[in-house]
Specification:
This protein is α+β, with helices and mostly antiparallel strands and about 160 residues long. It has a single domain (about 20-160), classed as 2,3-Dihydroxybiphenyl 1,2-Dioxygenase, domain 1, CATH 3.10.180.10. About 20% of the residues lie in helices and about 30% in strands. The chain is built from three helices and eight strands, in the order αβαββββαβββ. The chain has helices at about 20-30, 50-60, 115-125; strands at about 40-45, 65-70, 75, 95-100, 110, 130-135, 145-150, 155-160. The protein has an eight-stranded mixed β-sheet with strand order 2-3-4-1-5-8-7-6, covered by helices on one side. The protein is globular, with a radius of gyration of 15 Å. The protein starts with 18 loop residues before the first helix and ends with a strand. The relative contact order is 0.21.
Amino acid sequence: MQPGESEHGMILSEARSDNLSSHFYIRDVLTRMIYLLGKVVHFEIPADDEKRAQAFYANAFGWQMNPLPGMNYTMVGTTMSDQNGVPTEAGAINGGMMKRQPPFRGPVITILVDEINSALENVQKLGGNVVRKKEAIGDGNMGFTAYFNDTEGNLIGLYQNPQK
């Protein structure tokens, strides 16, 4: 990676035809994000009608939609990305879309942390509430996620690289 290049985002820059290649592609992108601790690295948009929402964002903003087979999740590309799916514009991020269901009632930002359990302990000490404890993404080779409500009731995601 060259100085100044952004490691933000988790988009599949081109649709992958099978779940295995999607899995390894996402894992590669996510594992390169380790030095971004504390930064917003992803967003999620829940939708009642996923196909309608995908069409809306694709047509309104030109976003790319890349469904992940077998995961009930669609990667959303908002910006130009390199061949590894990393946005080429500094500070730009990509995201995902999934079915609206509790606790996902509105858009969620995701913050990269070194260790989710430690971050959740700190969140609780500061007045936040754990909504979902640490869970593996897929079989854990794609990393881990957790969710909490901040002191204002906002749902916030956490992401931990698969190395931990």
